[in-house]
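Input (structure):
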């Protein structure tokens, strides 16, 4: 297969301004590119006139939860039988591809093998979806985020409760054995839990170290849920690779992040916070008001922190905990708008977070996330200019195609999915 995309407004993901150009694709990779004024040797290639359209790298979701299938509560995930849950996870993968995301780095699965099975099914061509790095469920301490159990009930949520370094090590090794690329540790609490709030650091140094040791021993990574300042420091001290949220990071935590900025990735996952704030507007119940009182300071802290992290050049990926009823799968491109509106990113910076930095968090910065000769042909051809308004990427009817590895997908009429061309 040879395809020459001509007369496109080419934005390559590096941060350089777009140029009128042409891109030659051969099989799954980009073979060559040039300004339109030059000639490109494109013998035998199909020609596609992309006049007036914007060609950019495919988006990368940096905090995916494909098996969080838009339920209102975490415990509703525990109630789903694995068979049904796997099919719903496959469907979320198709929606994510339909939303222009050609790669996804999972931040946790709701059951141990859900990400693994869907990742492998996509790689084998059994179903369509983004390139996927599979995560474990959220390893959490008793009473931490994702521990849905109650003394009088058998009830699961999206987490696995483990206490002490031995239990963390055993569960991490089990998830690694089952094929997870990333082990997820919930080091801090969260605004939605009663026992461990977002400002609390509940996983001990020894527990974090045990999880990191198990993953790093076989070359895999650890991602942390870390809202409290101390939880960010604990993650950094123990070698965690991806540190999500960082909302309450103090000056010392920011300095530590900056000192390790070539090693670590961060991601705010702001989408769910904004969706919850939105849904609480006009809710005058005491539960709603209590929730709002916890969320507002968190939102303010996360805005301060991410303005600062952007200035310090710390690597930040988009991805906003999509997969809850208030923040459904397939609406992930809203994160770009959030970065511009709430964190002071320029549209170009937000798009770079979603493409070039995304390729790096996929561990494939040498071949993913930019339009360059030799890179994988993961592309979006858009009717509109996201550098003028990032919101155009929220409407998949504007996608002339989504391309993954040289394969073109077209939006389906009236549905969030795409179909192979
Ligand atoms: Zn998450």
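Output (sequence):
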């Amino acid at each position: 297969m040879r395809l020459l995309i001509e007369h496109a407004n080419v934005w390559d993901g590096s941060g350089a301004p777009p140029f009128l150009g042409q891109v030659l694709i051969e099989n799954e990779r980009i073979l060559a590119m040039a300004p339109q004024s030059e000639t490109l040797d494109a013998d035998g290639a199909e020609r596609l006139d992309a006049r007036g359209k914007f060609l950019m790298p495919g988006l990368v979701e940096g905090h995916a939860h494909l098996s969080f299938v838009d339920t209102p509560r975490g415990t509703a995930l525990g109630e789903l039988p694995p068979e049904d849950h796997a099919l719903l996870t496959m469907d979320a993968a198709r929606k994510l591809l339909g939303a222009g995301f050609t790669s996804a780095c999972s931040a946790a699965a709701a059951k141990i093998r859900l990400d693994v099975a869907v990742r492998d099914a996509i790689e084998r061509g059994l179903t369509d979806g983004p390139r996927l790095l599979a995560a474990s469920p959220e390893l959490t301490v008793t009473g931490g985020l994702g521990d849905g159990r109650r003394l009088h009930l058998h009830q699961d949520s999206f987490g696995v409760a483990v206490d002490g370094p031995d239990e963390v090590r055993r569960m991490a090794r089990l998830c690694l054995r089952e094929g997870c690329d990333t082990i997820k540790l919930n080091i801090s609490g969260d605004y939605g839990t009663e026992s461990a709030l977002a400002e609390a650091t509940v996983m001990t140094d020894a527990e974090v170290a045990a999880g990191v040791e198990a993953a790093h021993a076989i070359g895999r990574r650890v991602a942390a849920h870390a809202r409290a300042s101390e939880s960010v420091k604990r993650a950094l001290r123990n070698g965690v690779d991806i540190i999500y949220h960082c909302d309450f990071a103090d000056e010392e935590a920011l300095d530590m992040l900056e000192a390790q900025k070539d090693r670590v990735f961060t991601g705010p996952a702001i989408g769910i916070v904004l969706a919850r704030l939105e849904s609480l507007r006009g809710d005058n119940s005491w539960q709603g008001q209590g929730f709002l009182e916890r969320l507002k300071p968190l939102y303010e802290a996360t805005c301060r922190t991410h303005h600062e992290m952007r200035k310090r050049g710390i690597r930040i990926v988009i991805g906003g905990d999509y997969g809850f009823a208030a923040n459904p799968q397939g609406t992930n491109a809203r994160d770009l708008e959030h970065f511009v509106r709430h964190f002071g990113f320029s549209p170009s910076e937000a798009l770079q977070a979603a493409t070039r930095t995304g390729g790096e968090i996929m561990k494939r910065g040498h071949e993913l996330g930019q339009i360059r000769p030799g890179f994988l042909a993961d592309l979006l051809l858009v009717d509109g200019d996201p550098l003028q308004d990032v919101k155009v990427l929220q409407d998949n009817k504007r996608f002339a195609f989504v391309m993954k590895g040289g394969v073109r997908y077209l939006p389906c009429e009236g549905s969030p999915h795409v179909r192979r061309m």
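Notes: The longest helix spans residues 286-311. The pocket of zinc ion is lined by residues 63, 65, 107-108, 269, 321 (CB under 6 Å).
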